[in-house]
Structure formats: structure tokens, C-alpha cells
Design brief:
The structure holds two protein chains of two kinds. Chain A is of the alpha/beta class. Chain A has five helices and five strands; from the N terminus they run βαβαβαβαβα. In chain A, helix 1 links the parallel strand 1 and strand 2. Chain B is of the alpha+beta class. Classes of the chains: A alpha/beta, B alpha+beta.
Chain lengths: ~130, ~725
């Protein structure tokens, strides 16, 4: 069974790096990274990952806008998206839930458990 | 026709024995001492009572005690009513059975028996009218009595005259008859006959005059035969004189028969005169009593009535003055209340009646909603100023709770009707359609009976408060996000190391260690900025301005930011002139480093950030110029807002806290300076700020006099 391929979109270099190492070294998945929403859209369309981990607060094109564009594109519409965000206010959570994403994970996260949480949301068997 | 012939032929039925001894007669004795039935003596129905035997009992036409009692009752009732306002409790009881507070005179609790002014007026004048009617009745009655008695008296005098005339006639006939018998002269008979001819008419007149007197009729029944007998005797004596000559006639005259009859006639006439005189006396007495009663009651009743009217008028005048005073106080109170309502220009005060029709719409409401009071009062309900969707939603909630449909105006007042008040936030819709967020409290207004007479809604505009709350929530959200971002890096890096994932990869371990360290520092800066902005906003930061060369400050700031610029491959250049600034050096350095940090972050590699200071009038103008992408002109002011970074489309690109520019503005403003930005798409951005020039400050201390740099400054410089 081939390893899962995950696209990680986050403008924070350090977080992107930590999450990448977690997904690769703990989860054993292939990780594609993008530092902005625009780059993420391009890589999603090109790479067709199994899932997208998407930051919310990003310049130019934020997470919800990126998700909307992924949904608009026939090629990327079926890719499940999980928001990875530091915004944890209840109003924010309600707003994210209404977007139609597969799930929401909050920052800070435990890098040793991040792959498991992603698998649980997406129904992947470890 | 009662003629002398008929008289003479009429059987007398009245013997000399009977006349001489009337008590021995079979006929009942004439009740001379008994008050006979006497309808002529009826001054009024009330004035005379009759027993079963026809005896009249003279009473006072109006019992004096009863009369006095009636008068006293009326007088005391009316006086008491006028004094205490309670002659007729029923009037007041009907008007206000509860006896509760009168709505017309606020603050004055009325007695449950207090009368209205009109009731007092009615009571006073009704009493006076009753008394005047009573007096009029008494006056009429007395006059009628006097009239009747006068007429009766005239009849009695005629009876007396007729009796006297009858007696004279009989006596004259007797004298003429006697003269004829003695002389045989026929001329005496002529005189006798003329006299006798008058007798029937006199008797007839007497009968007519005594028709209504039983006693006199009884006497007359005796008198008529006696007169007839007397005339018969006279007739016989005349006849004997003619037939038998002088002697038999004289013999006949010498008999006692004529004398007895004559005495009987005199006796009866005397008794009839006595009876008529008695009736006459009683009539006179009755008339006198009536006149005396009238003389007493009319002045007394009139006086009392006038007294009542006077008292009523005085009372009315007193009440009118009180009412005028109360009205004046009420008007003043209303004016005062209205001025208070209108003074509340920042508060919307809307009152309605119990149906919801607006009755008060103060100037605050006019200002808040854009409607005039004239447009609303008496014409509208508060529904027009509420957002329909909110009204419907609240109606649904209340309907579900109450188990019945609640809609329209009832939605506002449902809670208030239960007692207490209903405080909640609503959205008002202005006349121009704009929305105003308000906090509205609705209470029920109750009248003196405790019944709901209307509702009062007091609203304050909470648009600003709601915006501030929203901004605060957003700020907290932003701070939370900004704190969690570096924390996530630290947590992730340490978690990977602790989990042993990088144990066999030393380079990755070092990389994670560096991530943890740098984000720890970033977290520290963020916390410093948050605390700084809070201190600046609360005014707890005290500036300690000093005179310093502006170029020194530029150099220190550049030295601090040089490593970051090198990392970003951005060149830092100082373009300063020799000038002294009067400011808190630590805060100026903080401002400069923030602006340079910002410029570096938004500068492309291999570009230049220029910092400069120059004299401009009485101020020193600082500027930090980059060659970055620039800021849209509509965002140039917003970047100084505390939450500018929240806009994700303009969010920080390089880990800024979003608080740097707001902090800069606060510092500059607290020095009395200004800060602004100029930019254009693709032409970079230049931030300017001004601070006082040292030579413009009369007592500006020199650098030598200034205290040593604070620990904060040392730390900042070291950073």
C-alpha cells in the first residue's frame, strides 16, 4: 500500500517544518509543502494529494479562501481538507465548521499525535 | 218657593213643650257643646282630622318637630357635605368605588368619600333648592289657608247678619201684629205682611249659607218650624181680631204661647250666632297660626337657603382655588418632566399607552431614530422602529414559552406585564433605514388602581459599545492566535525531540532546537508588545523626555536591527543631520526599531531601507523608507489601528505581532507628535513621525544631565 501524500499549506516556516517532520517521520507519509494559499492551490492541482492540511491565517489568500478555491476546481474538489489553525475562539470554530471542511485541528499540536488525529478525521487506517 | 202662606200651612211639628223642655223631646238634643261636623272649617287635609263621630281635631298643619327634624337633617347633611365633601356618599361611591389615587392630582390621596367639585356644587344647590321649595310650599299653603279662612269668615259674617235680620223680622212682625190687635188698624197688617214676606227669603239664604255646616243645619231645622209656628200664632191672633173683635184677641195675646215661641226662636238664633261666632273665631285663629308659621318659616328657610348657597359658593371658590393651584403644580410638574425628558438627548425615551400607541417620544429618541415626535405620538407603535426579523424571532421564543401566539406590540411588553422589567438588546431601525444597536429596558406604568396604563421604553445606543466589545473579542482572538503561533512551533519542536524522532538526526535536532529558541524569543516580544500597548493605552507609561542627538538614536536603532536586515539581505542606510530631539530615548528607539523591523519585513531582498531625521520647523521629522510592495492608499490609516493585522488579506507576512505600528502611534502621540505613512503601489512605503526639537523646549536638559539608559533600553539595544 503506497504511503499517503499530504499537502501542507502554512505561511509560518517553523510550523510548516515541524508539521512536515511530524507527518513524515511519525506518520510515515509523503509531505508536500506550500508557504501560501496560491502555492498550495497550484500544488494541490498538480500533485493531487490524499489530503490537505491548511493554515487559516495567511496573507493574500487565507485558509477559508484557499479551501473555497479548492472546492471550485474540479480536480481538487474531492481532496479532503483539514484546517490547522491557532484560532480557537468558539465563534471561529463555528465559522470553520460551516465551511464544509473535513475537520479542524488546533495549534499548538502534539507532533507525535498529529498523524493519528489526521487519520482519525479522514478515516485512514494506520 | 218658601212663602209666608206655605209657612203658615206647614205643620210645625214643634210643640211648646218641646221648646220649653227640649231635652225631653224624642229628637236627639241639639249638640250645642259638641263640635259639629263642619266641613267649612277645613283649611287643609292635613290641618284637620276627623274622628269617627265627625269631630274635628285641630292639628298643626305641619308637625313642628317633624318639620324641625327635616330642616335640621337637610341643613346638617348639606353643611357636613360642604365642609367634608360628603353629603351623598353614593355619588362618590359610584364615581370612584375604590377610593384610590386620583390620576388628575398626582401625589394627593383622596378620601374614599371625597366628592368631586361638581358633586359638591350639586349637593349645595340641591339642599338650597329643597329648602326654597319647602319655603315656597309653606308660603303657598299659608296663603291658601288665609284665603280659605277669609272666605269662610265672610260667610260666617253673612250668617250672623242673616240671623240678626231674621230675628229683627220676626220681632217686627210680632210688633205689627200686636199693634193691629190693639188698634184694629189695617195699616199695621200691611207692615206685618211685608215683614213676614221677607222671612222665607231669609231662611232660604240661611239654608244656603249653612249647607256645609251640620250643626247649623240642625239648628236651622229647629228654627224653621219655630218661625213657622210663630207666624202661625201671629196669623191666628190677627184672624181672631178680625172675627171676634178686640177682647178675644187680647186674650189670645195674653196667653204664653206666643212668648214661648218667641223665646225659642231667640234661643235658637242666639245659639246659631254663638256657633257661627265660634267658627269665626277658629277661622281667625287658624289664619293667625298659618300667618305666624309663614312668618317664621319663610324668613328662616330663606335665610338657611341663602346660607347654604353662600357656603356652597365659598366652598366652590375654595375648591376652584385648590384645583387651580393643583393644575398649576401639575403644569409645572409636566413642564419639569418634559424638560428632563428632552434633556436626555443621549437616551431614547418612548412611552406608550396600554395599546401600544406612542404617547412620549423625547428628543433623544428623535435624535437616535430620525423621526420627529409629531410623526410618532398618537400615530405609531414602537414596532416601526424595530427590526422585523428580531421582533419575529423574539415573538417565536415568547410564544413557545407562553403556549400561545405572541406577536406585534405584545412582544415588547410581555415580560413587563408579568411585573418587573424586560432588559435586552434590540436593533432599532432609523427613519433613513440605518440600524442602531440599543439596550432597551421596558417597564409597565401603572395607574392609581394598579392597572397597567402604559409602557415605558428607555434605550441607549450601544453601537459603539457593541463595536468595542467586538473589537475586544477580535483583539483577544488575535492575541490568542499570535501567542499560539510561536507556541505551536515551540511545542512541535520540543515534542519531536522529546518523542525521540530526531534522536538519530542531529542536524534535524539542532534545527528543532533553533526553532524552539527563536519562537521563544518571538513569544517574548509578543508578550512585551501586548503589555506595552496595554500600558500605553491605560496611560501608566510615564515618558521621560531628554535632549538627544537624533542621529545617535538612528544609529542605535540601525545597529539593533542590522542582524535582521542582513538576514533579509536588506541594506540599512542612515541619512541624518545634526539636530537635537527632546524625547524619551527608550521610546524613540522602540518606535524606530518597530518601523525598521516592519520595513525590513516588507522589503524585497537586495533593497534598501533608509532611516533619516531632519529639522522641520519646531519639530524633528523622522522617516523610515522602504522599497517594498507598498500599502494601498485606503489602508494607510488603518495600519495604525490595533487590529489592522486581523484582516487576513493584509495579514503579516513575517511573523509580526500586528501591534508594532499601534505602539508607535501611541508613543509619538504621547510626545505631542504625529505619525503617518505615505505609499503607492510598487513604490515602497515611507513612515513619518515628528517629535519636539530640543531647542524649542526652554528647560530641556542636556545629554549630560540625562539619566543613564534604562534596563529596558539596554535590553532593547542588546536585542
Amino acid at each position: 500500500m503506497p504511503a499517503k501524500r499530504v499537502l501542507l499549506i502554512d505561511d509560518e516556516d517553523d510550523i510548516r517544518e515541524v508539521a512536515r517532520m511530524s507527518l513524515e517521520m511519525v506518520g510515515g507519509w509523503d509531505v508536500i509543502t506550500a508557504c501560501s494559499g496560491i502555492e498550495g492551490l497550484e500544488k494541490a492541482a498538480a500533485e493531487r494529494p490524499d489530503a490537505v492540511l491548511l493554515d487559516v491565517m495567511m496573507p493574500v489568500l487565507d485558509g477559508p479562501s484557499t479551501f473555497a478555491k479548492l472546492q471550485e476546481n474540479e480536480a481538487t474538489r474531492s481532496i479532503p481538507v483539514i484546517l490547522l489553525t491557532a484560532k480557537v475562539q468558539s465563534a471561529d470554530k463555528r465559522r470553520f465548521a460551516e465551511l464544509g471542511v473535513a475537520g479542524v485541528l488546533t495549534k499548538p499540536f502534539d507532533p507525535m499525535l498529529l498523524p493519528r488525529h489526521v487519520s482519525e478525521i479522514l478515516g485512514w487506517k494506520e | 218657593m218658601f212663602t209666608s202662606a206655605s209657612l203658615l200651612s206647614t205643620p210645625l211639628g214643634f210643640s211648646a213643650e218641646a221648646i220649653s223642655a227640649p231635652a225631653a223631646s224624642n229628637r236627639p238634643p241639639i249638640p250645642l257643646r259638641q263640635h259639629p261636623k263642619h266641613s267649612r272649617f277645613r283649611p287643609s287635609v292635613q290641618g284637620v282630622a276627623f274622628d269617627q263621630g265627625g269631630c274635628q281635631h285641630h292639628q298643626a298643619p305641619f308637625d313642628k318637630k317633624a318639620l324641625a327634624a327635616v330642616a335640621c337633617f337637610i341643613l346638617t347633611s348639606v353643611l357636613a357635605g360642604l365642609e367634608r365633601g360628603r353629603p351623598f356618599q353614593g355619588v362618590r361611591a359610584y364615581r370612584d368605588p375604590g377610593g384610590r389615587r386620583s390620576p388628575n392630582v398626582p401625589g394627593k390621596r383622596e378620601s374614599p368619600f371625597t366628592m368631586s367639585l361638581s358633586a359638591k356644587l350639586n349637593a349645595g344647590f340641591a339642599g338650597a333648592i329643597v329648602l326654597l321649595a319647602f319655603v315656597g310650599f309653606v308660603s303657598y299653603h299659608s296663603t291658601a289657608t288665609s284665603f280659605e279662612q277669609a272666605r269662610g269668615a265672610r260667610d260666617s259674617l253673612q250668617v250672623l247678619d242673616q240671623l240678626q235680620a231674621l230675628l229683627a223680622t220676626v220681632s217686627e212682625a210680632e210688633s205689627a201684629g200686636r199693634a193691629f190687635r190693639l188698634t184694629g188698624d189695617e195699616t199695621f197688617l200691611d207692615a206685618c205682611n211685608r215683614t213676614v214676606e221677607a222671612v222665607p227669603g231669609q231662611l232660604t239664604e240661611l239654608r244656603r249659607l249653612t249647607l256645609d255646616s251640620t250643626a247649623q243645619r240642625a239648628y236651622l231645622n229647629d228654627l224653621e218650624p219655630a218661625v213657622a209656628a210663630k207666624l202661625a200664632q201671629l196669623n191666628r191672633s190677627i184672624d181672631q181680631r178680625r172675627r171676634h173683635g178686640f177682647e178675644p184677641a187680647v186674650q189670645h195675646q195674653l196667653t204664653q204661647e206666643g212668648a214661648v215661641t218667641q223665646r225659642l226662636i231667640r234661643t235658637i238664633i242666639h245659639r246659631m250666632r254663638s256657633e257661627e261666632q265660634r267658627v269665626l273665631d277658629e277661622r281667625a285663629a287658624s289664619a293667625e297660626r298659618a300667618a305666624r308659621r309663614a312668618l317664621t318659616l319663610i324668613p328662616a328657610g330663606s335665610t338657611v337657603a341663602l346660607l347654604l348657597i353662600t357656603l356652597a359658593l365659598l366652598r366652590i371658590r375654595h375648591d376652584l382655588r385648590e384645583r387651580q393651584s393643583a393644575d398649576r403644580a401639575l403644569r409645572e410638574s409636566e413642564a419639569s418632566l418634559q424638560s428632563v425628558l428632552n434633556a436626555a438627548t443621549e437616551v431614547s425615551i418612548v412611552a406608550t399607552d396600554s395599546r401600544g400607541i406612542i404617547t412620549v417620544f423625547n428628543s433623544g429618541a428623535e435624535r437616535m431614530l430620525g423621526y420627529s415626535a409629531e410623526e410618532m405620538i398618537g400615530k405609531r407603535t414602537p414596532e416601526i422602529i424595530h427590526l422585523a426579523s428580531e421582533l419575529e424571532e423574539r415573538g417565536r421564543q415568547l410564544s413557545a414559552a407562553a403556549g400561545r401566539p405572541i406577536r406585534g406590540f405584545e412582544v415588547f411588553v410581555y415580560e413587563a406585564r408579568q411585573g418587573g422589567h424586560d432588559l435586552r438588546e434590540w436593533t432599532y431601525v432609523r427613519k433613513d433605514g440605518r440600524h442602531v444597536a440599543v439596550s432597551l429596558v421596558v417597564t409597565a406604568a401603572r395607574d392609581a388602581n394598579g392597572e397597567i396604563s402604559g409602557y415605558l421604553g428607555i434605550a441607549i445606543d450601544i453601537t459603539e459599545r457593541r463595536m468595542m466589545a467586538k473589537m475586544k473579542d477580535e483583539f483577544i482572538s488575535m492575541v490568542s492566535h499570535e501567542l499560539r503561533t510561536p507556541l505551536a512551533s515551540i511545542r512541535g519542536a520540543l515534542g519531536l525531540m522529546a518523542g525521540g524522532v530526531v534522536d538519530k538526526h542531529p542536524d534535524k535536532a539542532r534545527q528543532m532546537m533553533a526553532v524552539a529558541v527563536s519562537n521563544t524569543e518571538r513569544l517574548g516580544r509578543l508578550i512585551d508588545d501586548i503589555l506595552e500597548i496595554e500600558r500605553l493605552e491605560s496611560g501608566s507609561v510615564v515618558m521621560t523626555p531628554q535632549s538627544r542627538p537624533a542621529e545617535d538614536l538612528l544609529q542605535q536603532a540601525v545597529a539593533t536591527m542590522r542582524p535582521m536586515a542582513d538576514n533579509a539581505r536588506v541594506e540599512l542606510r542612515i541619512d541624518g543631520t545634526a539636530t537635537q530631539v527632546y524625547a524619551d530615548p527608550d521610546r524613540v528607539l522602540h518606535t524606530l526599531t518597530n518601523l525598521i523591523d516592519n520595513a525590513i519585513k516588507f522589503s524585497p531582498p537586495n533593497s534598501t531601507v533608509t532611516v533619516a531625521a531632519q529639522r522641520q520647523g519646531s519639530e524633528i521629522l523622522f522617516k523610515v523608507q522602504d522599497e517594498g510592495r507598498g500599502i494601498p492608499s485606503d489602508k494607510l490609516e488603518a495600519v495604525f489601528e490595533r487590529l489592522a493585522q486581523l484582516d487576513s488579506s493584509d495579514s503579516r507576512e513575517k511573523g509580526g505581532t500586528g501591534l508594532g505600528l499601534p505602539i508607535c502611534r501611541m508613543i509619538v502621540q504621547q510626545h505631542g507628535g504625529r505619525i503617518w505613512a505615505e505609499s503607492g503601489e510598487g513604490r515602497g512605503t515611507t513612515f513619518f513621525f515628528t517629535l519636539p526639537a530640543a531647542d524649542e523646549i526652554p528647560t530641556a536638559p542636556s545629554e549630560e544631565d540625562s539619566p543613564q539608559p534604562s534596563e529596558e533600553r539596554k535590553r532593547h539595544n542588546a536585542g
